[in-house]
Design brief:
about 100 residues; mainly alpha; about 75% helix; about 0% strand
């Protein structure tokens, strides 16, 4: 199999090969193996979530609703963190 890269990508590959002491084809095989493994895991997770949606085990929520909920939780967390940081610490013993 022959794969063509842009000169920039090819230079990066060759530089990494020189730094690591490994041949470029070995680096590419490792990179593609890891990529395909991650791709399979992602596909399995998406298939599983789709099955859960189809079966009714989980309920979909509107994207805007999810975003609004996430922003509210983020703001609540920030408020808790800033109020905790602003509260002076008192020693556990009488001064």
């Amino acid at each position: 199999m022959e794969v063509r890269f842009t000169p920039d990508v090819e230079k990066k590959l060759n530089d990494l090969a020189a730094q690591s002491g490994r041949p470029p084809n070995e680096l590419l095989q490792d990179a593609f193996a890891a990529y395909f493994e991650e791709l399979v895991e992602t596909r399995d997770m998406l298939d599983s979530r789709n099955d859960e949606l189809k079966s009714g085990r989980v309920k979909p929520i509107d994207g805007e609703e999810a975003f609004t909920l996430l922003m509210a939780k983020t703001e609540a967390q920030r408020t808790r963190e800033s109020s905790a940081a602003a509260t002076p610490l008192t020693p556990p013993f009488p001064a």
